[in-house]
């Protein structure tokens, strides 16, 4: 871990974080943020401020499995040393998974080709105490097939005005969703419970044999760009469809008429994960 | 939800809890406990103290997927109403999964036939922020086959003095482990990542493709009775074996010589779950 001033290098890091305790990714005055934590550690290491650039923001309470950031440094640490040095100083709810030296031209936000978000819904009469910070508890019956139909309506290139927060100042609301999938994992339906890997995971724990059956519903959304609150409004809308309060046709109409009021409510933040960021 | 004084019924409840915030299951003065939380809610409902009897204690920080308790009540609620009434008043980290009326002779502790504990080890260079409260992070290489061999040594009926806390006052330390299994789930080795259910779960999140490979190791221990700290000392010992610091033969010797010093350290509480309690 030699620290020599041998020129400036650009570093790309892949980061996982539990967003529960944070006011979101982006640095803000008087609030604890992911970017703020990273920059505090980097400033301590460099004895001067170091700017961290993320692939994009995540909201308060939203998590990341694979957020990507870049920063510049004159410290000559190798990849393993960066991972170790940062993880030692960061709180346990933010972990550096990977670090690599990248060309000076790399930009964590500008160079994004697409992103994947995943939203987890815990669909059982009683919530699991173990995934309460990582999923949305929906205890009422849901028609998954209708949710999948509505999901298909949203795939492709559309004006997503109806599925974005009114707070957005961006004018162009045309975005492309490459893939929108609604998956259901039912632990109880496993061929052999001792063979089902799910049964061994803490997240499965409330699907106890004596409990009424629980399911984990995952909404996987991959796209080239996302508007403010877009994934959470999509999920809130899909749940309305699943409950029978909206039809896939009405989702199509919301999209066509660009009417936020025709879409569903914004799903809560704790079920959302920035899952992966893809570059060229 | 009629509340009539039509005699006293005995109720059996299956409970899941996240033990992170608690000083253990058993009621203690000046400490927040699972039993204390349950009794507080029941006293509020009954306007008189109601004793909760659990299948056994769990230590501070230890979780339960399927703890079982019983209590007596003169309220005439049905099963669904009990689940709803208790969950509404309990904190989100304690959930009633199931309630059923049982014969007056049922006893949650005396009638236990066997119990299953599961201990989760997160085996990867970097810990997952999402399972940090539900697993033990072991970042060093482990020989799983040797751990499995050592596990076999412990199966059967033995004097487990070497694997119990010196604090125990119980004289008879002979117990029977019906099953001791060391399982490994490697998400990266799944046949098809999009088919692997594991890949969709929050607990999987640090096994990001750019991260060095991570594994979840589960120690499943089923037995008719357990001594204080027994599972955690067994897991601590198995990890010593996995690291190469002890051999399966030395585990056999610890057992035979009933010497606590020959066994390994006590594994931390957060990886341990009381998974299931079995009755006749």
Provide the helix percentage of chain A.
10-25%
User: What's the alpha carbon Rg of chain A, rounded to whole Å?
Assistant: 21 Å
Which oligomeric state applies?
A: homodimer
Please give the domain count of chain A.
Answer: 2
The largest pleated sheet of chain A is described as: 10 strands, mixed
Most extensive chain-chain interface: A-B, 47 and 48 residues
Q: Low-confidence spans of chain A: pLDDT under 50, at least 5 residues?
A: 1-5, 188-212
Write the layout of secondary structure elements.
The structure is a homodimer of 280-residue chains.
Chain A: E1 9-17, H1 34-46, E2 53-54, E3 63-73, H2 79-89, E4 94-102, E5 112-123, E6 136-137, H3 144-154, E7 156-159, E8 174-185, E9 215-223, H4 230-243, H5 248-257, E10 272-279
Parallel strand pairs in A: 3-10, 5-6
Antiparallel strand pairs in A: 1-3, 1-4, 2-3, 5-9, 5-10, 7-8, 8-9
Helix pairs in contact in A: 3-4, 3-5
Protein name (chains A, B): tRNA pseudouridine synthase A
Active site (chains A, B): 59 (nucleophile)
GO molecular function, one term (chains A, B): tRNA pseudouridine(38-40) synthase activity
